[in-house]
Amino acid sequence: MSVAKLISGTQVANEIRETLKRKVFDIQRDLPNFAPGLCIVQVGGREDSNVYIRMKIKAAKEIGIAAQHVQLPRTITEIELLDKINNLNNDPSVHGIIVQMPLDSDTKIDSHKVTDAVHPDKDVDGLHTMNEGRVSIGDLGGFMPCTPWGCIELIKRSGIQMAGARAVVLGRSKIVGTPASELLKWHNATVTVCHSKTKNIDEVCRTADILVVGIGVPEMVKGSWVKPGAVVIDCGINVKKDPTKKSGTRLVGDVDFEEAKLIASAITPVPGGVGPMTVAMLMENTVRSASRAAANLLKKVWDFAPLVLRPARPVPSDIVIARSQTPKDISMLAQEIGLLGNEVSLYGNKKAKISLNAINRLKARGDGAYVVVAGITPTPLGEGKSTTLIGLVQALTAHRQRNAVACLRQPSQGPTFGIKGGAAGGGYAQVIPMEEFNLHLTGDIHAVTAANNLLAAQLDTRIFHEKTQSDKALYDRLVPRIKGERKFSKIQLRRLQKLGINKTDPDALTPEEFGKFARLDIDPATIMWERVVDINDRYLRQITIGQSSTEKGFSRTASYSISVASEIMAVLALAKSLDDMKNRLANMVVAFDRKGGPVTADDLGATGALTVLLKDALEPNLMQTLEGTPVLVHAGPFANIAHGCSSIVADEIALKLVGDEGFVCTEAGFGSDIGMEKFCNIKCRSSGRKPNAMVLVATVRALKMHGGGAPVTPGAPLNKQYTEENLELLEKGLPNLLQHISNGNAFGLPVVVAINSHSHDTPAEHQLVKAAALKAGAYAAVVCSHWSDGGAGATELADAVIKACEKSSFKLLYGNEMPLLDKMNKIAQTMYGAAKVELTPTAQHDLEKLTKAGFGNLPICMSKTSGSLTGDAAIKGAPKGFTLTVNNMYVSAGAGFVVAMCGEISKMPGLPTRPSIYDIDLNTETGEIEGLF
User: Which positions fall inside the Tetrahydrofolate dehydrogenase/cyclohydrolase catalytic domain (predicted)?
Assistant: First the structure.
């Protein structure tokens, strides 16, 4: 008598594991620090569950899967369990989640709700309703239930053809019977499902070429139920008493094996049949999930769908254009560019914040090319630097199918309500929605304002209390006894360390140490910290504070700056992480003490509070262009006071999102002499990044002004010199362009000149500019029409940038060790064309004080007019050999640079006679903002 062939699940499972080992090896060859992650969640501690969990963890580790067992107490509630599962759903290192059943809980927990709480993309058990639904409609690309999938693999390896075969599935459970029948159906078998209500069940089973049994009754299926030559897959596992065994029990299936093996052609044993396959397929699902995650990290091109532009003629106003386009839902854009759901915090459906965790998740990914967009010395109208940046990324992404992100500063509300207007670009190269971009956005500037003013309040309060209290009284109030206990806070312990007092017991300090700890002894004449507000308010340029009788006559002269001039804004832009931001905030110098030592935010005890106010503000903001391409809007330090660049963290996230074949284009404020120089010497020095190319935005209008043209005044009609061809005037202004090209080359950057075309320009004028730029060493010079045509008008610019990024040999202009005066001379001579820097007596004193205080190794932030290469806004063109006067100097220690003030630079703009306020209104019927632009 013939006996059925044994289908060894153990053998097949071992073969599958070996294949999975190779797959994991291949993944880690491309991503060395990547590991597939499996998390097994268990409620309670049932020993039978523990056996299965140990088996799964052992199999996972053999393959190279990082498996973790999360054991939760029996007392856990349903809400707490669902919250834990949600956390695992949001953990990018976890690719597969199993909730071990049954739940061993003291409280009522809906197991179906629990299995459906696991995200379908991590449901490696294949039990989520969505994954079950996929199987039911024949979509086998998702996660299939492990036991039924294991059955299918065993049937395939038995040699029998499923297509056309008659299959009977005994049992209709969610985990085995029902999905097994669906899988057999989609493998083209003719399937009958039997269950407890089926009549003549033995007769139905005898019709099966393939018999899959998962009924849960020990040895229910007898040999007489089996069709001769059938393949029998036994999914049951039951404990049966057996006095011949040492344990007194043995494992049996739902099929009477001894009888069935004499009838069937092939049969699975119990144990050693379907059981090992269930674990193997679980591992297969986990590796499949991890492979998808790895593929996303390695993906070169986004699954990106651009928005279609339909440019109108004549070109309408910016606000009309912006409102004519319907933006994508921001969550859709985030998904297109490779962000996970938990990395995106939605602010409505058109803007979002991006978690810094994205940097860690994408750290194994290559970095894109890094492009800085700067300009020549502008007219008061601006030359379209932001517009060119937006047009460039629209061209790269929507028209050249390259991953590209624009990184922009967040505009201040001061210019928005003043006269300059917003900074969202213009025409058909804008960020949308422009109203949200130019107004509150996500509140980052408000957070900067609050943090800045909290520190100002603490500074003045500390001076007041030191003047009105003895050392002992001050100390007792700073370290109070609460409920009989007295202890230092963390920040106070740092101050003790700074002072060299190695004590942690507040009662152990000597009277001398009381005073040393409690008294900062701030010299009011040296206070550098100003209050800020994000509107133009000229009457706050100089004020008197402390005039209330409660301040006991301790008044002083002070001033306000606009919020974006706060050092905290510069810190926000230069911080590389929360920890780095916290350290920078701690190091901010607010004043000097009477011995000449710096007093910091940490000395004032404010570091932690400032960090709390700014923790969300450190996350960049995601928006989009008119063509639906991504824009990261973050931070907005003044370019003439600070370094004028958007944040390092925005660039870091963007460089990872675009991948090694993509492009990150970021704007530097004003001309290359200010913004680009600081982008390189301050921002790139801090981040360690090396830009690949510089785009230099130029206009015929600005070059004519530098050639001696009539003044260009906002709101006034342009002189006919600017609306008619005038090659002679244009040629006289070209030296300004050539200086800016030289500035880019001084850093080893290939310079692509983008001639931002205006309607009054002529082809001859464009040709003159192109020829001069190329002769001066520009890598390329192209005419762009992105304002009127969107990305389609900047495709030639995009092509030139793509090629230029292969030519970079970036270098910094000076080393940290160079003395401060030498750094200033290097910048002035190389970037501006000056002969030398001259210090006023005040600046000379400041230089000596800052050097003595240990700030001599910091980079220099030159604060000068944006309207000229010199320190005088009235001087146009590109003069050579002039002397640049530095009036005074101060340190922004948290930001990490020394500021050299060249001339009078106001940090608080004023409103004009007729500000934009007159035009801005809210339509209360439609909810639309009117008159913004």
Answer: 7-125
The two tokens of residue 810 are 């970036």
pLDDT tops 90 at residue 439: no
First and final C-alpha spacing in the chain = 93
How far apart are the C-alpha atoms of 367 and 369, rounded to whole Å? 7
Pick the range with the lowest mean pLDDT from 1-5, 125-129, 209-213, 886-890: 1-5
Is the model's pLDDT at 440 over the cut of 60?
yes
Do 103 and 170 belong to one domain?
Answer: yes
Confidence of residue 420 (pLDDT cuts 50, 70, 90): low
444: alpha, beta or left, given left = phi > 0 and alpha = psi -120 to 50? alpha
Of 283, 302, 320, the one marking the end of a domain is 283
pLDDT at 933: 67
pLDDT, one tens digit per residue, over 578-631 is: 999 999 999 999 999 999 999 999 999 999 999 999 999 999 999 999 999 999
**635/811 Cα distance (integer angstroms):** 25
CATH number of residue 226's parent domain:
3.40.50.720
Q: Compute the C-alpha angle 865/870/873, nearest 5°.
A: 45
Choose the catalytic residue: 56, 350, 582, 678.
Answer: 56
Kindly state whether residues 400 and 457 are assigned to the same domain: no
SS3 assignment for 580-631: HHHHHHHHCEEEEECCCCEEECCCCCCHHHHHHHHCCCCCCEEEEECCCCEE
183 and 149 in a single domain? The answer is yes
Write phi, then psi, for 571 (nearest 5 degrees). Answer: -60, -45
**Structural domain containing residue 173:** 5-283
401 has catalytic annotation: no
What distance in Å separates the CA atoms of residue 35 and residue 23, rounded to the nearest whole number? 11
Residue 886 contacts residue 840 (beta carbons within 8 Å): yes
Which among 125, 256, 534, 846 is annotated as catalytic? 125
125 is catalytic: yes
Give me the chain's average pLDDT, please.
94
Q: What is the pLDDT of residue 484?
A: 87
Q: What is the largest CA-CA distance in the chain?
A: 113
Query: Which is more confidently placed, 237 or 208?
Result: 208
pTM: 0.91
Q: How many separate domains does the chain show?
A: 4
Residues 495 and 383 in one domain: no
Say whether pLDDT at 421 is over 70: no
Look at residue 463 and tell me whether its pLDDT is greater than 60.
Answer: yes
Catalytic site includes residue 656 = no
Is position 758 within any domain?
yes
The answer to whether residue 290 sits within a structural domain is no
Rounded distance between C-alpha atoms, residue 278 and residue 517, angstroms: 66
Q: Are residues 566 and 655 in the same domain?
A: no
What's residue 330's pLDDT? 98
In a domain, 650, yes or no: yes
**Burial class of 448 by CB neighbour count within 10 A (0 to 12, 13 to 18, 19+):** buried
